[in-house]
Amino acid sequence: MKRTTQKKSELLKKHENLYGLKRGFNPPPSTTLHLFQIGLFCSNSLAIHREIISFLVLRTVYSRIQVRIMLVKGYPDKTPIVELSSKTLPPPLLRSKEKECLAVAKTLLGKAQVGAIFHLLYDFVQENMFVPCWKEVKKLAAMCEGSEHDHKFGCDEETGVVQLRLRNGAYRQSINLIVPKNYPEDAVSVEILAGNLPNSIMNIYKGHADDVARRCIAGFTPEDALATVHEVDAGHSQRTVSTRASLRASLHDKPRHIEVVTRLR
To answer: What is the pLDDT of residues 198-239, one digit of tens each?
Structure first.
């Protein structure tokens, strides 16, 4: 046991330049190896000070969390203080993950807690495709749950698939929304599944949805992207009404044309 502890201490000392260690930092032996493991994943962002460990967990520009762990007096018999920050993720999500980190740390009192906190956050950022659109997914779930039409909502965070089962009276339609790994730089894709609406109608709406996503990627705000599609719909409806009116006029005039032809005969 003494040899193992000595090896871990030598390993941390060997990587002092990598970690940017300062004098006075003396982590528990059980934490030393975990710091080395974190350094392998976050070698460019890991910083260790007297009682503070900070590192960046990153998957994309929009899926990133800056982690700050403060070792309190009495650690590891006491839980550390965990602070999370991000320029792209909403504060409620960060506060929720902070609580999860402390809950994990409480189960490891007297043991190394830094490594467990790191793996919890690393797995969350790397494996959850909804990290950059967490607020949007929650809003969509609330819309389905609060609907009077008995809509169903489901999601798979590993594949980034949002499953929608929509109903309105006798009509029903199943739709999948697929969030790409590089969201929001890449557009969400739409899959039309089973339903009793005509395919021609669903293809039109799928085309509108794809166009909205394309415009958002191009820099339009969601409101402007939707407004543009509505303008197209309005123009199409106006042309349709005009065409129907012309058709009705033609049908109304048809008997008179027939009467003229009859007189000529």
So the answer is: 888 899 999 999 999 999 999 898 888 888 665 655 544 444
At 262, the amino acid letter reads T
What does the alpha-carbon distance between residue 33 and residue 20 come to, in Å, rounded to a whole number?
16
Q: Determine how many CB atoms are found less than 10 A away from the CB of residue 200.
A: 7
CB atoms closer than 10 angstroms to residue 224:
13
Domain endpoint, select from 107, 127, 147: 127
With respect to residue 169, please indicate whether it lies within any of the assigned structural domains. yes
In a domain, 69, yes or no: yes
Extract the tokens encoding 135: 């607020």
pLDDT digits (tens, 9 = 90+) for 136-182: 999 999 988 877 888 999 999 999 999 999 998 889 999 999 999 99
Beta carbons of 48 and 58 less than 8 angstroms apart: no
d(CA 163, CA 228): 26
**Domain check: are 23 and 69 in the same one?**
yes
- pTM: predicted TM-score of the whole model, two decimal places: 0.70
